[in-house]
Amino acid sequence: MSKSLCICVSNKEIPSESRGVPMPHIPSNLRHIESLVEIVASLRGPGGCPWDKEQTHESLTQYAIEETHELVEALELPASDASKDLKMKEELGDVLFQVVLHAQLAAERGAFTLEDVIAGISEKLVRRHPHVFSDTQVADTAEVIRNWEEIKKQEKATSAAPSPYALNVPPLPALQKAYKIGKRTEKLKFDWEDMDGVLANVEEEYQELREALDEGNDSEIEHELGDALFSLAQLGRHVQMEPEQVLRKANQRFENRFNMMVELVEKDQKDFSAMTLEQKEEYWKKAKLLLKKK
């Protein structure tokens, strides 16, 4: 659910009319993109929502990340899940709200509008698909990708060209970016020669983290923990496993086991908060075994 809807409802705002401000107009057809733009503008307007009116591009960053990850979670639901389409629709709506809200903030300061955003992506798609919108011929998907990359290079040729050896990795979630950095350095022939080299680096970083933990220096712990996570991302790359996806699956396994553990505790009519760690561990093992049988 979008943050603004939660905030406005939970704060039980005083109706705009009672504050001497006209109540915002509700569009008659909510299926049109223009209606969403109007609603978002109203949220930011005189009779709108205090939370929405306080937001900036920077303050909304965390919600862009959260909503995108919730969409990915819905996309990865098994096709057999009866709720998949409904969840996908809801999460796509939340992501779209973020796009429209950012466009509204930009429009308020005269930078650009949602129409400009739509025009920009439309022009880019047409430009990068000459095999669809012009007479360019392609043999297969691999050639489509090569053409796409070449067109991207031509688009960037007008600006100061970075070094051909620069990483230029796009902004991504940290673990995914670590993987992409490794893919780029691999192409530049700056990589471990074999799996043994990667594993040795993982072990080295782990040992350095242990030493930092023993010393109790927070800045050093942060540094070494980051290095350890980065080296594990490179290990994932060397075994052809994208670490972001691997960790998402691990997160889901932990969630499933934890929820099963709580369910078992409640089934035995025990107070989870009063249990010892050892007692919880026993239920954790039971949950793990039950889930393995499914």
Automatic annotation (TrEMBL):
InterPro entries hit by this protein: MazG-like_dom, NTP-PPase_MazG-like_C, NTP-PPase_MazG-like_N, NTP_PyrPHydrolase_MazG
Record-linked Pfam families: MazG (PF03819)
NTP pyrophosphohydrolase MazG-like domain: residues covered: 55-133, 198-257
Coiled-coil regions listed in the entry: none
Gene3D superfamilies associated with the record: MazG-like (1.10.287.1080)
CDD domains linked to this entry: NTP-PPase_MazG_Cterm, NTP-PPase_MazG_Nterm
GO molecular function: methyltransferase activity; nucleoside triphosphate diphosphatase activity
UniProt keyword list: Methyltransferase, Transferase
Any single biological process term in GO: dGTP catabolic process
Protein name: Tetrapyrrole methylase family protein/MazG family protein
